Each structure stands twice: as structure tokens, then as C-alpha cells.
């Protein structure tokens, strides 16, 4: 019987959508708590039918068994800025084991780098889904890697498909050199992580402060008891252009005091 691929892959697409939302939600939780998230970005994908067929044929898997055997039909990629962040994400996933997902397998390609130079941490999970009233466990591969690892893996993946997996030896050797260079970059970035984190925290706290000021100005505009409302907006623009965060904090404190007095 001919497999209805569109219907068969629907649960995988829904699982990917849900998992992307979950991990982006974790990132948002850190942001709300004024903490630096170990997650920089999250993307997801479902393998194309052509890719599923190609991989099944390469592994001598009967096509009617492919969806049951292949573990990476649904894939989530979690990007981190630092190598240390990868372990934090792994622990976050392990804490969810047995709750909203089940860990089936872990593969550490960072400690045990592939011969090609590929680095990433893979966690295969089982994720419960209800599709058209039917309960189904969907296998999904979580790939956790740094920005540098992801850049290298994206290039290597494109070259493998360009050469139909028969990448010339010269290019393979160059890729290995690039993989080591990418990991050296990760190591150097880890050495200045504290300084980078302080800079990131400063930028995020500044953004949050500006959002508060804008919100408070809008509140003043909605109040009939405040005169010269435009003056507050002009003052904010001048302070924003000046870029002094201490003056912006003082200005916001004045706005909050004024709003408190109006509300009493």
C-alpha cells in the first residue's frame, strides 16, 4: 500500500512546532528572570520525503519501517554561544526526562569528535503527541551545539550533498582544519566569557529599562491630569541619544514617582 507521506509526517511536524515553542519558552524564562539564557536560538525541521527514502535505502531499511526506525525524522537544533552552555542545556533537558519527554539516547560528538571534524551533542527523545485523537510517541533528535559548531556543520552538510556524500579528500582535509579552527574559536570565547556576559547583561538591562520608560510615558499620555506630556517624550529622546544609563534610570524613577502620585 502506498504510504500517505503528508499524513504520516503530520505528527512529526506538530512535535517539532511544539518543541521549538518549549525551548524558546525556556529562553524567555531566563530573560524574564533577568538571567542570561544558555540558549541563543532554536530551530526545527522535519526531513523531506526524498531525504527519508535516501537514508532508508542507504541503511537497508524497508520503506514501510523507516518512520519507526529512523530517529532523526524530526529534528530540533539548539544553538548556544559557549561550550559551557551546552552542558547547561543538557541538564535542562535531563530534568524534563519522564515528564513532558523521555530521553532514549545521548551521543556526545563534542568529546568524541567524528572523524570528519563534526562536533555536536545529540539527545534522542520520545515526545508524546495526540493526533486526531490518537496517542503517539514521536522520536525526535535534539542537536545542541555552539554557533561556531553550527556554522561548520552547515557548510559540511551542504558539501556532502553537493558531492553526493563523496567529498574529495582535499576538501575533507580542509574541513577538518576548519573544524579545529572553529573549536579553537569556541575555546577562546570561553576564556572571555565573563566579560562577554557582563556586556550582554548590560545590553539587556538597558533594553529593559528603555521598555519601562516607553511604557511609563504611554501611561502618562493616557492620564488627563498630566500637563506638558510631550516634554517627557522629548526628554527621553535626548537622554536616549546621550546614552547615559544612570540618567535614564533617574528619568524612569521620576516617571514612576509621578505615576504613583497620579494614582493616589
| Lateral strand order in the biggest sheet | 1-2-5-4-3
Alpha-carbon distance between the two ends: 73 Å
Which stretches are poorly predicted, pLDDT < 50 over at least 5 residues? none
- Supply the helix-strand structural class: alpha+beta
Radius of gyration: 25 Å
Largest sheet: 5 strands, mixed
- Helix-strand pattern, N to C? HEHHEHEEEHHHHH
| Extended strand count | 5
Shape: elongated
The overall average pLDDT, rounded, is 89
What is the share of helical residues?
55-70%
How much of the sequence is in beta strands? 15-25%
Count of DSSP helices? 9
Which SSEs are present, and which pair or pack?
Blueprint: H1 5-32, E1 41-46, H2 49-58, H3 66-69, E2 74-80, H4 83-96, E3 102-108, E4 121-131, E5 134-146, H5 147-162, H6 169-191, H7 193-221, H8 229-242, H9 245-263
Parallel strand pairs: 2-5
Antiparallel strand pairs: 1-2, 3-4, 4-5
Amino acid at each position: 500500500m502506498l504510504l500517505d507521506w503528508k499524513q504520516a509526517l503530520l505528527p512529526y511536524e506538530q512535535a517539532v512546532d511544539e518543541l521549538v515553542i518549549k525551548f524558546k519558552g525556556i529562553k524567555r524564562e531566563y530573560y524574564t528572570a533577568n538571567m542570561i539564557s544558555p540558549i541563543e536560538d532554536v530551530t526545527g525541521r522535519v526531513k523531506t520525503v526524498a531525504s527519508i527514502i535516501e537514508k532508508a535505502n542507504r541503511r537497508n531499511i524497508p520503506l514501510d519501517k523507516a518512520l519507526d526506525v529512523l530517529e532523526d525524522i524530526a529534528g530540533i537544533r539548539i544553538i548556544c554561544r559557549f561550550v559551557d552552555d551546552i552542558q547547561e542545556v543538557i541538564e535542562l533537558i535531563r530534568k524534563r526526562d519522564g515528564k513532558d519527554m523521555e530521553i532514549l539516547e545521548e551521543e556526545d560528538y563534542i568529546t568524541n569528535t567524528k572523524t570528519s571534524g563534526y562536533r555536536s551533542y545529540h539527545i534522542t527523545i520520545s515526545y508524546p503527541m495526540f493526533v486526531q485523537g490518537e496517542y503517539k510517541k514521536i522520536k525526535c533528535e535534539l542537536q545542541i551545539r555552539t554557533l561556531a559548531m553550527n556554522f561548520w556543520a552547515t557548510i559540511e552538510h551542504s558539501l556532502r550533498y553537493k558531492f553526493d556524500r563523496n567529498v574529495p579528500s582535499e576538501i575533507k582535509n580542509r574541513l577538518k582544519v576548519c573544524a579545529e579552527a572553529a573549536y579553537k574559536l569556541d575555546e577562546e570565547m570561553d576564556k572571555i566569557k565573563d566579560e562577554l556576559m557582563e556586556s550582554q547583561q548590560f545590553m539587556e538591562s538597558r533594553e529593559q529599562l528603555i521598555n519601562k520608560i516607553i511604557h511609563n510615558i504611554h501611561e502618562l499620555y493616557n492620564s488627563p491630569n498630566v500637563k506638558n506630556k510631550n516634554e517627557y517624550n522629548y526628554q527621553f529622546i535626548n537622554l536616549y541619544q546621550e546614552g547615559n544609563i544612570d540618567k535614564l534610570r533617574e528619568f524612569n524613577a521620576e516617571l514612576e514617582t509621578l505615576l504613583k502620585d497620579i494614582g493616589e
